[in-house]
Amino acid sequence: MFDVKRWVALGLVMVLATGFAGVVAAQDAAEEESKIGFWQKEIDISLNILQSAYSNNWNGGDKGSAVWNGQFSARLEKQFTEKTNWRNILKLAYGQTHSQERDANGDLYWKRPDKTDDIIDLDSMFRWTVGKHWDPYVSFKFQSMFEDLSDIEERALTFNPLSFKEAVGISRTFFKEDEREFITRVGVALIQNSRQYYLGPSPVDEIGRDATYEAAAEWITEYRVGALDGRVDWESKLTFILPFVYSGKSTFEDGFNTVDPLPDDVASYSTTVDVDFENTFTANITKVISVKLYVRWVYDKYDNTVGPVVDENNDLVNEAAVHQAIRKSGQFKQTLALGFGYKWD
Length: 345
Prior knowledge:
This protein has 345 residues and is mainly beta. The chain has helices at 4-25, 249-254, 266-269, 319-325; strands at residues 39-52, 65-81, 84-102, 108-110, 114-127, 135-144, 147-148, 157-158, 162-176, 180-198, 207-227, 232-246, 274-284, 289-299, 331-344. 11% of the residues lie in helices and 54% in strands.
């Protein structure tokens, strides 16, 4: 069924993102970014499309498809004074694959689209650049998805889950030049998660919500480099998160009733180190045409946004979601796209 609310919400976010880019791009281009008190800005909007279609009698039995992906990224940084710096990074992405299948009569029809990309990621960090080797920082991070399809029946939930992280610690900038930047930070973080879930299989459409929290240590390293006069860029981010407190761990330890048994040591999964390694390679063919290779490897033994929910009978209510949250091996994602976009510096 066509979910009007979901698509209106998605359209609103993209409109706001585009408007944000326009406001920033309209600022006076004569600002000297090296000066204290001016925003250093980098805005990138891109759209990648691949489409094919065939008639029912096409020789060879080929099937049509349409693949599209829209991305918006913004990086705003300002050195307010010699000792205060504020950096904000926003990433939005959404993409789908539409494909054709043949029915019993041999006629082609379009299947329900599959989601290929879905990212909402805001990272804000304020640093006191005191001129020593290490600078104190406070940071805020928000992550979500436009459309969550993790339900076992792939029923959609809009803007789910919601994850908020506040952190304090120390950071070090090894070098920061026009086309190169290398920065690392170590700190402690508080993480709040909120997730919606369906209370039963179809046709039940009642939705419940569960909240969890974590306290963790974090170590984040970022590296950016440009080459060939800005025609090739590489951006890399390596994140380690080690939770030492998780609100759902005691529920696992106390035990509950399940249909399918969980691993005996599942409680320890929630406080195992999480690793997230992202790499984006961009080759700018022209001002509006680019090739992007995105590679991501994630190790998250248990997804802590999925808290175990137990009813008065000590039965695990969201058993399917808990089983899906267990991932004992690493997860790998790779996308390669040639598309149209524009970048403001």
